[in-house]
Amino acid sequence: MSTLKQLAVRFFNSDPIFARRTVGGIQPHPFKERSLRSRIMSTPIPQQLTIPIGAEGSGEITLLVDIGDQVRKYQKLAVLNMSVEGCSDVPVHAPTSGVITSIENLIVADHSEQQQLCISLAADGHDEALQLEPHTNYSQLSSADIVSLIRDAGVIGMGGAGFPTADKLSIYGESAIEFLIINAAECEPYITADESLLRERADRVVLGAEILKQASAARRCIIAIEDTKLDAIAALKQALQNEMSLDQTCELVLIPSKYPAGSERQLIQCVTGSEIATGQHPTDNGIVMHNVGTAYAAYEAVVEGKPCISRFTTLCGQALKTPKNFEVLIGTATGFLFELCGIEASLEQRIIVGGSLMGSQLGSDKAAICKTTNCLIAASAIEFPTPEAEQACIRCGFCADACPSNLLPQQLFAFSKTLDTTQLLEHGLLDCIECGACDYVCPSHIPLVSIYKESKKLIETRSQSLERSDYWQQRFQFRQYRVKKEKDQALSRKPDASLKPKLAAEQAVKTPKDEQGFISKEQASRDIAAAVARVKARRNEKNK
Amino acid sequence: MLPLISHWLTQLVISSSLLLIIAFALLKINRYLRQQLTAQKSLVNRINRALPQTQCGQCGHPGCLPYARSISLGEACNKCPPGGIETILELAELLNEPVRELDPAHGQFRDFCVAVIREDECIGCTKCIQACPVDAILGGPKFMHTVIETECTGCDLCVEPCPVDCIDMINQLTPSLSHTASLYFDKHSSSGVNS
């Protein structure tokens, strides 16, 4: 570690900033060397592109094209309005010119393992593009202009969560943002997309960071990178020195290399020292974080005016002859990329999307690259052996040491087995970031993360059904109240009960009363006699 | 004279202490009874919370709360088909009873359904409106009725009174039942933690 620090000091003229250590974490072998040997390669345009729009439940999709339409590069194909709070429209653009052949639900290279609505585009090879509007003088643009440019370009979080960048910027436009953190800590094994991007295009990433800083009105901009990525640190340092003249400097912070240092909350704790409370967002503490890839996409969107039609993706694994990083068009089939790398069919066992710890297995090699696909691993049987049989928990406590969120994984495991949702919530299951560190260290090979995912689902369905049943109970009680009220009203509406006192009251008003308010006996007999006389007189009149 | 006074005094002391004891005992009894009552009430509340509140009456009671009261007095807790295995598990845990299978006399488990009226066949008789326990059906006499989908508990009570049989129960797929059932069987098949 000390030699690394010395090396890092050599790269800096001034004192380098080292972040503090955080709890937990593991140090798996990075497996990053092979894919870093070659430079980023732009892929040729494939004949067929399958552009993912969004999953069925994820939001409202507005298609702007139809089957058979001729589209040009950068043309808007569809707009997705995600049903997440605070999200606005995200447009999806055509990566090249061609004809729309079909619109259907297909599997994409994504963590969710869900089908998404995809637009299939048969490329015509001409690559006819729409005219772009560059804005080289971005420093004169207002923050709202930058946000709208980024929104029109359809930029979403390239780190994996895929939250629309424009919304992340505009939510925080009002509250004061202290830190903008650019996340370059690519801590998961195998993934090198961000590292190679920084190595080759650090200047544009820094410009993108400046743009994001301007849009979010942050006071400080910090680029956080692991202290083992020496090439990327050198390139960043060079780029930052070039930027010095602009008087808007970003700072570089080196963080210890361990997994999961790049997780949002862990990185914030590492860089700023403040811990984000459960249920809060980083912005509540005046912090906003963007990925390196997002910064690059923001640069392209604003300075070049280019919509987000490509991303950087690592292809690696023992089954590939030449693993490398690609600047790949959104919608390229994974099989196309594997062929570009050269695949050794004898070794290939499975394809994994994402890194080795948080990734998920992909069933088909026709799945399309989407805006959040950061890594594809063609794994051999030696690299990813079939998981060993689960054994009983021996309470060794390795998982508690490894947990970066300070949880007690073995307790959570026990409560998951007994479906004890109250205890699970009390032990902070919802703070679990599903990083897989506990899985990695478990000597009994218990698939802890997948058990926690199941438990989270269970808690969600339980709370939903409780909410629903509370509402039904309320409705039922209201109905009972309503029925009873109507019955009472119907009872009181009976004519006898309501009319009698009314008549008596009328008479009481008409008849004269003595001082105490009572009708005296003589008065009553006089009244009766008068009434009898009146009746007699009327009868006589009638008889006449 | 002195012994007489002391005799009176002792009598006074004894009687007053007796009175005090009786008052104390009464207080204790009162408190105990109250505790019993509140415990009973909170048990009923907890049972009622575990029930699905569909108000379907399949258990033989007019609503979920009466059934909860009856369970707290000793009735079997496996008579609620809409709650699924989840409700039976929760109730068994709450009452510290062994888990029993659903009583087949009260129906079968099924996925969550909502009532849907075939609107061109509806004659506007308002019979379903009167049957609905949660006021989820809209409509007037001789006018078409419709079910508010989000309010419907899927209790089936409107299907029976409809004179023209124009109400269908349409399946709303919820993964919770199968998911929970699988977890339940996992729990009982594998030993879990060594503790």
C-alpha-based Rg of chain B, rounded: 28 Å
> What is the helix tally of chain B?
5
CATH third-tier fold name of the largest domain in chain B: 3-methyladenine DNA Glycosylase II, Chain A, domain 3
Uncertain residue segments of chain A: none
User: Gap between N and C termini of chain B, in Å?
Assistant: 77 Å
Radius of gyration of chain A: 36 Å
Question: How many domains comprise the coordinates of chain B?
Answer: 2
Structure write-up:
The complex is a heterodimer of chains A (544) and B (195). With 544 residues, chain A is α/β, with parallel strands linked by helices. Among the domains of chain A are: 62 residues, no CATH class; 49 residues, no CATH class. Chain A contains 16 helices and 19 strands. In chain A, the strands form 4 sheets. Chain A has a 6-stranded mixed beta sheet, sandwiched between helices. Chain A has a 5-stranded parallel beta sheet with strand order 1-12-11-10-13, with helices on both faces. The model of chain A has no long low-confidence stretch (mean pLDDT 85). With 195 residues, chain B is mainly alpha-helical. Chain B contains 5 helices and 4 strands, in the order αααβαβββα. In chain B, the strands form 2 sheets. Chain B has a two-stranded antiparallel ribbon with strand order 1-4. In chain B, helix 1 crosses helix 2. Chain B is elongated, with a radius of gyration of 28 Å. The relative contact order of chain B is 0.11. The C terminus of chain B is likely disordered. The chains are: A alpha/beta (544), B mainly alpha (195). At the A-B interface, helix 11 and helix 14 of A face helix 5 of B. Chain B: This is Electron transport complex subunit RsxB. Chain B: Keywords: 4Fe-4S, Cell inner membrane, Cell membrane, Electron transport, Iron, Iron-sulfur, Membrane, Metal-binding, Repeat, Translocase, Transmembrane, Transmembrane helix, Transport. Chain B: GO terms for molecular function: 4 iron, 4 sulfur cluster binding; electron transfer activity; metal ion binding. Chain B: It comes from SAR86 cluster bacterium.
